[in-house]
Amino acid sequence: MEFRKSKITFLFIILAASLSIYFWAAVKSGEPLRFDQFISFFVTGILKEFSYPFFTLMDRIGSKLGIGMVSLLFILWLWIKKRDYLAMAIFVFAVAFGNELNKWLKNAAGRPRPDLEHLVAVKSLSFPSGHAMMGMILYMMIAYIIMSGLESRTLRWLIGVLAGIWILFMGISRVVMQVHYPSDVAAGFAMGFIWVTIWISLYELYKTNL
After folding, report:
1. How many whole angstroms separate alpha carbon 89 and alpha carbon 1?
2. Is the pTM of this model over 0.90?
3. Would the CA dihedral through 13, 22, 135, 124 be positive or negative?
4. Residues 6+ apart with CB under 8 A from 40
């Protein structure tokens, strides 16, 4: 079944759109969110100093340099191993324009970073999280392209689960490092999912008509 025609995809799109609208409205209102207080307390209560090296690594992987290196390696793999030029083009546009969209959303929302001691260096505004949004776009796109070429259902599930865990850790790292509110991360995931779904749908449409 094609991704864009899946009922699960449709349900997740509705959920992602609802979360995006809710958190956007909440952030623009300027009122503190209980969601942020609860999730921050829960995450930082479990993941203390012992986890900082791992989440610092996740911060670097989700940086512009990290995203650029992963993207380049995947593009080379698509070129050398798959010769899938359509996938290469869709992947590049999804990641590049997704990054620009994240910048625009940050400026439009205008939310400052949490007033806490930042454990990693940050320069941009807070909402939505770039690591969460770009992590969703980059790794969901990679997982989809790899899964679409596999015949084994078990392997497809394995790739999907591993990608989901990786994306989740990338988002959690922003809360642990005290540079984002949980709502920044949740909105980043939601907006990233909507964005990558658009590009995957375009890929499927063009591939069908080739």
Report:
1. 23
2. yes
3. positive
4. 175, 181, 182
